[in-house]
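pasting for ref. prot 1 ->
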Amino acid sequence: MKFSENWLRHHVPTNASRGELAATLTAIGLEVEDVTALGEALDGVIVARIVSARKHPEADRLQVCEVDTGNGVVQIVCGAPNARAGLIAPLAMVGAQLPGGIAIKAAKLRGVESSGMLCSAKELGIDPDASGLLELPADAPVGMPLATYIGLPDATIEIKLTPNRADCFCVRGIAFDVAAALDGNVIPLDAEPVPAQSDATMKVSLEAGARVPRFTGRVIDNVNATVQTPVWMAERLRRSGLRPVSFLVDVTQYVMLELGQPMHAFDKDTLEGEIVVRPARKGESLALLDGRTVELDEDFLVVSDSRGGRAVHAVALGGIMGGLDTRVTNATSNVFLEAAHWIPSAIIGRSRKLGMFTDAAHRFERGVDPQLPGIAVEYATRLILDIAGGVAGPLIDVTLSEHLHAPKPIVLRRTRLARVLGLTVADGEVVRIFTALGMKLEPLDDGWRVTAPSRRFDIEREEDLIEEVARIHGYENIPTHTPAGALALVTEPEARLNELALREQLAAREYHEAVNLAFVSHTLLEKWSFTEQLVPLANPLSADLAVMRPSLLPGLIQALSHNRARQQDRVRLFEMGRVFHECGSLHKSPTIPGRTPQTSNIPPVETPSLAIVSAGHARAEQWGEAARPLDFFDLKGDLDALIAWGGEPQRWAAHADGLPGWLHPGRAARVTRDGETVGYLGALHPRLAKELDLSPDVHVLELALDPLLGRRLPKALPVQRFPSVRRDIAVDVPEQVSWSQIEQAVRATLGTTLAELRLFDRYSGKGVEAGRKSLAMGLILQDASRTLTDDDADCCVRNVVSALEAGCEAKLRG
């Protein structure tokens, strides 16, 4: 937010210096990013009028001007393209010292005497425009010091606002905070209702429900649209970062900057019938003020007139920008002023969706006072009538009261205030702060009942009021105390591994940790086919950060892609974080980007997760081993190592069925623990890899973190007194039967007698039927109470073969 220092002081008179004012703004949370002094050295610069201008005899681009100073006529040689007879412009007299150290002296240019310099805004240090002389109004008093005429010296102050302080997107909003901090008072706004001078009006209908609960307007006929914007208004706009355009446009911009209410002025003669505020229709197009024609959908709101008896002709894009066909011009005579209240969720993301940014959308996205529209129309009407004349009709105010935000009283307890701040703030100081901020107070026995003004959307609970007292009273006045109290030592449970240790294990396996935002774009999730149970944000930072991540992989893959685009061929990343899913049924319609999410009191489900992405060679470049591309089994080996670290690998299994669509069929697996799916690993699906502009060698792993961190409690066992017996068998099984199925069958059959099971060979080809494979395994058998005999071992083998024949279609090979 950029504004003029003098404009702010007009609303809240204070003796504080510029430096003190800037320091105060920063101290109360309105961080000052830049202060640019204007017109500090303009002594000797006056308002002058060019009497005549003739071509320089020795230079094509120079003119010799006779200039009236109000105290005589001087000769000036000028090269500005807009220098002409009758022009009122600034003149730096001989002896003046301009900003930047430019000293004005009498000079001879190409043989012609010049006694001063006609100036551009840039040469005066008040604007970057150097295209020509600064043109002043025709009624500017010749001979008056320029600084006096345009209100200098001044300064442009730019502050950085946090999203919760939407009320400070205007000069008066900032003024209330300054008044509270500097013990001042805000001058009341002169916005008395303008009495109707005619019956001219327009019928307005609201068809967007709670998204537009208020729409105000007024018809003003016989306006002189060609009148020049007053200097004081034009300068305030210019110093706030807006360039004056035309009077009617400037008035709406001026009111927005001063009061915080975006407005729009229509040429009434271009409107027909009734004004209808409604959702846009799919495929509807609208030509905007910036010259672009945009195609809309039902997610946008429009203002339309009712040509032909139906609301079919959109004339403005609600809360964002007006239409080209109904704009005001110098030919406009009859004006329809509009100021509406668009709720934030109806505007958020819409302008970004169209690739545009407007001051109106920026304010409406953060919240505008719902009581402002009528005040803004009255204020703008008064300005127009005073400067451009006209005949005003009655105020049009169509309101859906049930949808308007109404501030609720909040109780502030005196004891709670002292406890949170750590000091006692005098009752008088508390009352002064809230009164200066425009809040209403009702004294209670133990504190106050406080009602915030409608512009303060951020005041919702007692803690918000305490924060207001803290920032205005001064954080520097809150004493610093060393915290005291007994610290309870918490021991980590032995049955759970430490997350830091898991990070170290992954780092030891050459993975680098990545930390990504918990927000992703809906478009990216659609590529991954994540469309259900999504958790959209009510107020996203941008369209690319509009949904809470349902998986760590989309963000982690983007990090991998970012690294590979920078010549990093071998990338190995992991991330530990939470993923979010909507609590409830899986059968929900996908979230539409930009559309207002349905709020619920049920919080989303948060699941701690681990994700790994890897691409490139399986091993770092070296001389001892030939380069080999990464494959499924490399990543599976890393997972097996992490599982073995917990000490219970027999509880885990990998299955080839039930895979999500983003994994490559045949090169991926579903991971289970105790039969419950906890994650997936494998190669990225070629279709998705192509869509993400990745090579097909990308492998991923994601699984819930808690099952991985659980481990078997250490238990001391005596050294076995009796020897083990080994029996090797080879079985012929169908190709689709996984090793995990075989392992589970063997362990279930032998129970505690099986000390270890080793797979040492896999064969398919000659001698084995097509569609089948041969697996050779070693059974390590041992009993804790006796030595197993050959008959015992043979019995175990027979039982295993029978179980495999029955459950896995196995055949014993000779």
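and prot 2 ->
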Amino acid sequence: MRSRHFTIGLLCMAAALFTSCKKGYLDIVPDNVPTIDYAFANRVEAEKYLFTCYAYLPKEGHPDKNPGFSGGDEAWTYWPMIEDYFYLDPYNIARGYQNSANPNMNYWDGYDGKSLWQGIRACNIFLENVRKVIDLQPYERDRWIAEVKFLKAYFHWYLFRMYGPIPIVDKNLPITASPDEVRVFRQPVDSVVNYITSLLDESAAGENTGLPLSITSSTTELGRVTKVAALAIKARVLVTAASPLFNGNSDFTGMKNKNGQVLFNPQYDASKWTKAREACKKAIDLANAAGVRLYHFSPSIFQVDHATQIEMNIRNAVCEKWNSELIWGLTSDGDPTYWLQTYACPQLDPNAINLSLKAKLAPPLKIAEMFYTQHGVPIEEDKTWDYANRYKLRNVTAKDTGMQEGYSTVGLHFEREPRFYADMAFDGSKWFMKNKNYNIQSKLEQYSGKKQTRLYSITGYYTKKIVSWNLNFTTSSLQTESYPWPVMRLSDLYLLYAEALNETGGSTEALTYLNQIRERAGLQSVETSWSTYSSNPTKYASVSGLRDIIRQERSIEMAFEGSRFWDLRRWKTAPQVLNSPIYGWDILQSTYEDYNRKVFLYNMQFIAPRDYFWPIREDNLQINPNLQQNPGW
């Protein structure tokens, strides 16, 4: 029986078709032809193969399978860990332990049981054989082909983002392929981008054929790809390709194949931003036609005050299942965000301590400082906000948002924007859930704080944003509502468009998209906020100033969604941002004064240009001497 959200049991059955494929690097020669013939004997078997192609998607909503959660500086975790993890790979990357002998999070060869090259191979097999299925209706065949072209493009994109220039595997090699044919070369950045976007165009083509505009069969097809998803991912690819890492970057000028082919074009090309802008606009227009809208919270059970309404606008744009803003959500294994939520959520109730709530996904102090003041400008720019005394204690009064009256906490936590209180929690803050409003008390030995060698926040902060308000618990049970992980939502697309507009002379229009996101988050427009409160009131009027605003707006709006890890790289700001120390509060203390002291936790190191890309495992370079290693590895 099919599951409700496309987590179909047939995935595991069909995956068994490929358990014998273990030749190693780019195993693209099909050695299981009899099995393949059986797989396309009829519609039922072919559908299993389609779902197998989907099964290769990385589980991006899992905290140990997406480097964006713990591989950078957005969340930190106590160390060493002896339990409460699936893989240590992302934490090793954050601590500078990446290596070329046995790379962490090695999706090239296989990580979490997934080699993306094997996924591409499965897609090619499907595309080469699906027309043999005798009982498949043409309209359904065309849709399946479009879905698999999308997946093939997405797997190439995922590898490209990790490794930079990669081989293009458009077709599987025949069984008779010579050793020289198997030893493929990496392709130039621009060629890879053109190939991925061409596949996405093919996937999204057609008015009433191929991919649907939206999913209509909610009981069986949620999580499958739509035309809007294809165009939105294309927009993301092109914005990345236009960004400084890939556009006008001289750091990789000497990166060539052994046949002399140059892999990075060091010349800046303004037309890349134009292509990105056009792709974003096309995706936004189609999203509007499909009814995709910025999410606004509408409680059906009870009424909430204005501050809570705004908070839930922000939280449920991510956590409400299949909400109006979602463009493409992953539903891996039917429980795509269970572990993410349990990693993030602290103990909320002193009378119901539940050991499944781990609280380990801890934002550092720098992330708390990233959010705006209540006036919608950076804390260091707000003329009315006491930046100099942000680490001094203040007493919480009834008028203070998101905190417990009578508590003491640092000035950093006062008069902040709604996204700060929606996204993060800390000692003295409140945590709104459907069943009640909880208080966070996390000094030493308090119920939300450190009491043992695990299940606590090393920084004193908690990632509230990614925990569904429907999570329920007792001492002995835990029920979570595992929402689909939002690979792409509309505000993300708006921010990509604003970025492309600003780089192509469209700053005024860029502001309209930023301001829609800010309005949903309870903030005034960029123009009003900067003109009235900022020490740099005309910052938004220049391309460079608005670029900085867009980047900070993106970092805030997309916080804890795995975006920052990649954004810092494509913007080429990673060396400046990631070579700064990780700080938190003194969680081993029990008094207000002692707890609220800034303490050093770790000195991250980002070595440029080496750390912009993953290393290719050394074994692969020996097997295929035509492969060139990434610089620095």
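The mean pLDDT is 93.
Residues 138-163 form the longest helix (26 residues).
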